[in-house]
Design goal:
extended; 158 residues; Four Helix Bundle (Hemerythrin (Met), subunit A); mainly alpha
């Protein structure tokens, strides 16, 4: 009869974590926050530029479905994701995700909803103007965006 041998590999990271010394968690957090502060300024500039581009892009829409313009708008909206979180604007981050979801649904179904896209673009601008942590004020706006998205739900055939 043979016996079972269990081999547990030794990982270098585990050994390093067990060694005393090095940076404490508190020091690492302070360093990370300092690094993020430096990124915030750039994020604010990129965010404001992206919102201006989004408004200019929306002005090009007509009253009929334009798949190329929706694809361009989607790429721009995706490029904004992550920036609001760096600036502590979680509601704006959620609205950017909502716009991406709506544009994806419109592109998939071939339906057009100029008003729905317009509401999202206007909500992005409004949420950008709110101070950080104003989640209670932003919640009704995000709820309205959810309702707009739900009008374009893609039903599964399963």
């Amino acid at each position: 009869m043979s016996s079972v041998r269990i081999h547990r590999p030794k990982y270098a990271l585990a050994a390093m974590l067990r060694k005393p010394g090095g940076t404490t968690v508190a020091e690492a957090v302070v360093r990370a926050e300092t690094n993020l502060e430096g990124l915030q300024e750039a994020a604010w500039l990129q965010l404001d530029s992206g919102l201006a581009q989004m408004e200019a892009l929306f002005a090009r829409y007509g009253d009929v479905f334009d798949g190329d313009l929706i694809a361009e708008h989607y790429r721009l909206a995706v490029s904004l994701i992550g920036l609001p979180s760096l600036c502590d604007l979680d509601a704006l981050e959620n609205a950017a995700h909502s716009l991406c979801d709506l544009l994806d649904r419109l592109a998939t179904t071939g339906r057009w909803d100029r008003g729905g896209v317009q509401v999202h673009v206007q909500a992005l601008r409004l949420l950008r103007s709110l101070p950080a942590g104003a989640d209670a004020v932003a919640e009704p706006v995000l709820d309205g965006l959810r309702k707009v998205r739900e009008r374009h739900a893609i039903l599964s055939s399963n």
